[in-house]
Structures are given as structure tokens and as C-alpha cells.
Specification:
The structure is a single chain. By secondary structure, this protein is an alpha/beta fold. It has one domain: Rossmann fold. The strands form two sheets. It has a six-stranded mixed sheet, sandwiched between helices. A two-stranded antiparallel ribbon has the order 2-5. Helix 4 packs across helix 5 and helix 6 packs across helix 7. The protein is globular and about 50 Å long.
């Protein structure tokens, strides 16, 4: 059975621009709204359109006028104690913890999800896909989907750049493959 998974990264948010860990309720910024107003998705859309429950992903779907079903498995990586904080703020309050995370980002933020845990959450979700899907989600979730599809080690995910409004297409025909990576 062949199928495609199109992963769309949500529009820009303040933490994406300044460098930080988004909170679940972080909204798209003004620049992101302007970019969304110009964006046109290819037509027709896949039969299933999903979005993360987090605000930025849902706003991306709403602003694109896409009726998307919320899928909890597409939620962003849990950033634990650092959710909603900029890297500058974390550096000011706990530079040693930030240095440890920079040395090993796959271990996750304090109190947060590790990359292994994220990939363990995304892999079964990939296996559950039965038809073509468009999923609006977050950079780390997209990296984890690529990593799961290509059987990459967790540290390799941090070598994949996923910009706001990037599109990654995975195709499945007996195994998952990276079909394309780009920006709309």
C-alpha cells in the first residue's frame, strides 16, 4: 500500500525568531500571519488533514482555511521547565544547565521529553497512517518523523533544519522514504 505524509511546519512564532523553547499556547507572530496570507497550498489536499493541538499549529491551519482534525500525537516536544523561555533567559538563570543541554540536546530540557521519547511517540503514529495525510506540526516533530522513517540516531535530528512553513514529504511503499524537503 503506497501513501504519502506531507508534514507542514507551522508559521513563525516569537520563540522561533529569538531562539527559545515555545510554550503550548504560543501564537504565531505578525510576520508569520503575513507569510500565511500569501501562502497557497497545492491542491487537492490529502483526504486526511491533521494538526497539532498546540496554538501555533492550529492557527496555521485556521489561517490557511484548512479544516484540520486535532491529533494529540503531533504535539510539540515537551520542553519541561524551559517551555516559554528564551535561550537568553535560560542562560541568565542557569548557564550550566543550558551548557549541558547544548552538549547533549537529545537528552531534552530539564523536566521535558527526550528525543528518544519523542521518536517513540512518533514511530507508532507513522505506522498508523493508512492513507495520504497532511499534518501541520512543529520542527522537532518533523525531525522525529524523518528520523523514524530513515532510522536515524537521535543526535542526527539536530542536523536537520526545519524552517517555519517548511514542507517535508515522506512516501511509503513497503518502507518510509524521504521524498522531498522544501518550503512552500
Amino acid at each position: 500500500m503506497s501513501k504519502r505524509l506531507i508534514l507542514l511546519c507551522h508559521a513563525p512564532t516569537p520563540s522561533m525568531r529569538e531562539g527559545g523553547f515555545p510554550a503550548a499556547d504560543e501564537a504565531i507572530d505578525e510576520g508569520g500571519l503575513r507569510k500565511l496570507a500569501k501562502l497557497r497550498l497545492p491542491s487537492p489536499l490529502p483526504p486526511t488533514v491533521l494538526t497539532s493541538p498546540m496554538t501555533a499549529a492550529r492557527q496555521t491551519a485556521e489561517n490557511l482555511k484548512i479544516d484540520a482534525e486535532v491529533e494529540s500525537g503531533l504535539r510539540d516536544m515537551d520542553h519541561g521547565d524551559w517551555a516559554g523561555q528564551s535561550l537568553a533567559d535560560i542562560h541568565a538563570s542557569d548557564p550550566d544547565a543550558l551548557a549541558r543541554w547544548i552538549a547533549d540536546p537529545a537528552s531534552g530540557a530539564p523536566g521535558g521529553e527526550t528525543v528518544d521519547a519523542l521518536m517513540s511517540r512518533i514511530s507508532p503514529w507513522l505506522d498508523s497512517i493508512r492513507e495520504d495525510v497532511l499534518a501541520i506540526t512543529h520542527p522537532m516533530v518533523i525531525r522525529a518523523a524523518i528520523g523514524s522513517a530513515l532510522d536515524l540516531p537521535p543526535p542526527a535530528l539536530f542536523r536537520i533544519d526545519i524552517a517555519p512553513l517548511s514542507v517535508v514529504t515522506l512516501s511509503f511503499n513497503r518502507i518510509w522514504r524521504l521524498q522531498s524537503l522544501g518550503v512552500l
